[in-house]
């Protein structure tokens, strides 16, 4: 999933610590996007977050029930 959405195989990060941190951030982003209730693909949600800061705020502030 990370390779499809974030093209992780094309990453040129060579430092191990940086690569681990980026990988963690990408997994965290995917989990936030999956939790959002809008019925769209992860890629669609990523694009929507990029284009609309209100939607990005919604994704980042989802409250757990």
Largest sheet: none
Overall geometry comes to: elongated
The H-and-E topology, N to C, reads as HHHH
Stretches where pLDDT is under 50 for at least 5 consecutive residues are none
Q: Based on helices, strands and strand pairing, what is the structural class?
A: mainly alpha
Strand content: under 5%
Spatial extent as radius of gyration: 13 Å
**Averaged pLDDT:** 82
Distance between the termini: 26 Å
Number of strands: 0
**Helical amount:** 55-70%
Number of helices: 4
Task: Kindly describe this structure.
The structure is a single chain. This protein has 65 residues and is mainly alpha-helical. Helices cover 66% and strands 0% of the residues. It contains 4 helices and no strands. Helix 3 crosses helix 4. It starts with a helix and ends in a 5-residue tail after the last helix. The model has no long low-confidence stretch (mean pLDDT 82).
Architecture blueprint of SSEs:
Elements (H helix, E strand, L loop, with lengths): L1 H5 L9 H20 L6 H10 L1 H8 L5
Helix pairs in contact: 3-4
